[in-house]
């Protein structure tokens, strides 16, 4: 093993010290102590008159802002109000009504299934996303807005599923990095786009992701990862795995059953779902359906 390979393995080992099973469970996400419930009730009374939508007045929404700011009411209030301002200034309430067909073709996202606690598992083929092409075509701002749209779409579908009786509060993301190219995905002009992707999550959709797993991570990605460190949330864990397929597949299978993963990720399904298929179901994520769909016979 050469020096670079040894360094890469050491870095990945350090980044993965927090086991995926150490993530908060669904029960933890839905449970409050008596003190936290008192804080939540007070927080609601402070902000409720400024909330434009009914879903924003629910406990499961309000507690996200409190958790993101360690149940500090003034800090959570500021964060939430800044979010409302951002949503109004950027027309987020109507972003799903815009035509995104061009970007949906160029930047696909798949739905693998659900994890063992029922959360949707999303996979993103980062190595196939040509961010540089979009930037050179003068679409940097549209690419950033596309990421806004993705967050809004996924969290909207989670709310729809909650209204249908599903116990879903978060999602998992698998970032597939095998085709990552420093020129195409790591160009200097691309960094603001990735920074936006991370910053928008941290500021405006806090706590909605349960696990963020990067697999088949190449050595050259680590330099970009360090540059993106200021944009990454301290509230959410990122788990990076290199090219050792057995290692990262074993990590995934600890919290996702084979029936809910494609063969690419160590599962038995031939193909994943698409966001369009979920959209055709009215955004209602039904865990059993995803296990049966496209599974190998």
From TrEMBL:
Keyword tags: Signal
CRAL-TRIO domain location: 99-273
SUPFAM superfamilies: CRAL/TRIO domain, CRAL/TRIO N-terminal domain
Keyword Signal: yes
InterPro entries (UniProt xref): CRAL-TRIO_dom, CRAL-TRIO_dom_sf, CRAL/TRIO_N_dom, CRAL/TRIO_N_dom_sf, SEC14/CRAL-TRIO_domain
Annotated signal peptide: 1-23
Example of a GO cellular component annotation carried by this entry: cytoplasm
Keyword match Signal: yes
PANTHER family, alphabetized: SEC14 RELATED PROTEIN, SEC14-LIKE PROTEIN 2
Descriptive protein name: CRAL-TRIO domain-containing protein
